[in-house]
Amino acid sequence: MASYSTSVLAHLFGIIALILMLVWLLHYQGGIEYDSDNSSRVFNVHPFLMFFGFIFLVGQAIMSYHTVPGTHETKKTVHMTLHFIAIVLGIVGICAVFKFHDMVYLVDVYSLHSWIGLGTFCLFGLQWLFGLTFMFQGTRQSRTAMAPWHIAGGRALFFMAICAALTGLMERTAMLRLLPHQRESHLINFTGLAILLFGVFVDMTVGLAHTYT
Amino acid sequence: MASYSTSVLAHLFGIIALILMLVWLLHYQGGIEYDSDNSSRVFNVHPFLMFFGFIFLVGQAIMSYHTVPGTHETKKTVHMTLHFIAIVLGIVGICAVFKFHDMVYLVDVYSLHSWIGLGTFCLFGLQWLFGLTFMFQGTRQSRTAMAPWHIAGGRALFFMAICAALTGLMERTAMLRLLPHQRESHLINFTGLAILLFGVFVDMTVGLAHTYT
């Protein structure tokens, strides 16, 4: 029950973050479009896909063991499939920011955000491959032995992805040279808080389920 | 054993982060001093105390149940005392940044970093008070019932404190107008990665201990 109520809160803050981000990108930042001549519209693909495509779906995948009805196999398939979709959308999101850098002649991969983000994404790919290997190749004993590490590793990577999102919002705020207490910077801050609380409640859903069982 | 090895990694990355931060603040940023006419030296008290005084000590307090030898009562006293020292040092660290803002006529509490940081710190104070009340007033049953929530809440707040640290490093990098791929910005990035890995391994130490027992 405890993990059910935290998963409801996770959904609430995830959807709030999505709405706030869409208001920011569509109303203040001119829209989202990969094939545009407007560099800002190309950039906007990055925060949208990294949050809604990657972090939000990964959060759903993590919670699937507690939210999806059906057998353990069903939950596992949902968990694996959502992660696969998230990784594909994440790759497109990362391509978008490199395309933006090319358009405005900016250097790549110099900020703390980019280091955390790319590092986390690569480790995520590895974690997914490990998980897939165990799903099809591992024995029941080896799966049981690996489970605590898979869970701890997955939670750590999700935590790192949230850090990447928040440092990314900080970087964009600095790049846009927004003034303190401007309406748009408040909107970005509230988006960041909602993303953080989404992360907290997804993590709590897993944590409480494990402490109570 | 699993939680022992992750606590060793937590110490390793915690100490690396501390060394890198000291090199940054002492060598590149002119030193750390609360009562200085140099605003930069006053500012430097903030990252130093928020990391070494607050986050590092809170991490030690969290791990104390798995690293401190002795009875459960001893571990609990260490856990509570370290948190108390961390909160006191954190208050001084927060005062330092407000003093810095006054010195350079900057507005307060407008950035995502400040919102996450102050929000987390206030909730931390509440969590400590709740913990203290239960330590002295609660019955054995009520303590057992509250434990999963205390652990989940504490882990969430620690996660939020790491996010505050990383967004803080991003804010300072932007404020100092460091160029991409400058030596100092690389140093700050490595400090950030070490703080992130400290957070990850402290959290894993708790997580693995709970999944294995």
Tags for this entry?
homodimer, 85% helix, mainly alpha, Four Helix Bundle (Hemerythrin (Met), subunit A), 6 helices
Radius of gyration of chain A: 18 Å
Domains of chain A (count): 1
Count helical runs of chain A.
6
How many angstroms separate the termini of chain A? 11 Å
Shape call of chain A:
globular
User: pLDDT under 50 segments of chain A (min length 5)?
Assistant: none
Order of helices and strands of chain A: HHHHHH
* CATH fold type of chain A: Four Helix Bundle (Hemerythrin (Met), subunit A)
Number of strands of chain A: 0
* Assembly state (oligomeric): homodimer
Biggest sheet record of chain A: none
Find the structural class of chain A using helix and strand composition.
Answer: mainly alpha
Let me know the average pLDDT of chain A. Answer: 95
User: Helical percent range of chain A?
Assistant: over 70%
Largest interface: A-B, 44 and 44 residues
Task: Kindly provide the name of the CATH class of chain A.
Answer: Mainly Alpha
GO molecular function (chains A, B): metal ion binding; oxidoreductase activity
Cofactor (chains A, B): heme b
Domain Cytochrome b561 (chains A, B): 9-207
Transmembrane segments (chains A, B): 7-28, 48-68, 80-100, 112-135, 147-167, 187-209
Secondary-structure blueprint of this entry?
2 copies of one chain form a homodimer.
Chain A (H helix, E strand, L loop, with lengths): L1 H27 L10 H29 L4 H32 L8 H26 L2 H36 L7 H30 L1
Helix pairs in contact in A: 1-2, 1-6, 2-3, 2-5, 2-6, 3-4, 4-5, 5-6
